[in-house]
Amino acid sequence: MATSNYEGKKFSNRGISKTLDHLTVEEALQININTAPFTVTMRTPGDDISLIRGLLHSEGIINDLSYSPDVVLKKENKEGIVTIVDLSIPKEKLADGYANSRSLLSVSSCGICGRTELEELSFMGKVLDKKEQVHIESIHAMFETMSRSQNAFLKSGGSHAAAAFSIEGEHLNSMEDIGRHNAVDKVIGNLIQTKQLKSAQLLTVSGRISYEIIIKAFKAKIPILCAVSAPSSLAVDYAKELGITLLAFCREDRATCYSHPYRIIKENANSQVG
Predict the structure, then answer these.
(1) Annotated catalytic, 110?
(2) Which of 72, 124, 207, 258 sees the fewest Cβ atoms within 10 Å?
(3) What is the pLDDT of residues 105-142, one digit of tens each?
């Protein structure tokens, strides 16, 4: 199951309408080696055996190209997606990379990746219940502001950006980085350093949104998160649970809101969508 259907509200020049979109599924996979937890990686389900074998090779866990370990299913979720597998690997087949399960390349990609055990993915904390609202037209203007600050992207085409704004649309800061998550961390860090974190009510992000960026916004108490590209299924699930208003596909005067749309208003809107 690579995609899942999610309802949303689409804002455009024609008004507000309902939409049903296919979002890429994001789920955690815990990998055990010889019954002991080894690491957790986030992935889109499908071709898991190839994913596991490629990970074992690229990280130097198994250097013998002719050997592929037995993979035993340990657990599935209620949708039938595999969440835990156990690999049976003789000790003589384990290479040096096995000694450090937290040094995997996947650590840099998200907050879950690199953990050795898969805990319950519900996040304990108070749901954001801020009631401030923002015009969708203002959000489009915020993306234009962020775009103008992307100096590294204009030169290289290879960096992501994030920017923070007040509910009135004041631009608080913009940051760039080769990683989407790093750009968000830089924005939040700068807000803390400049004592503006409480003023930040909206975060714009280039690229797609996965669940860990939702968590970053939640921990910073920023209730509105807007992205240029698609969210993952888990991002929408977490946004709904944690009280984050999540908008995606924010481009060409369009946007789709997948959670808590009460914070978004449209000037001269002729229709309301319940």
Answers:
(1) yes
(2) 124
(3) 444 345 566 565 655 455 556 799 999 999 999 999 99
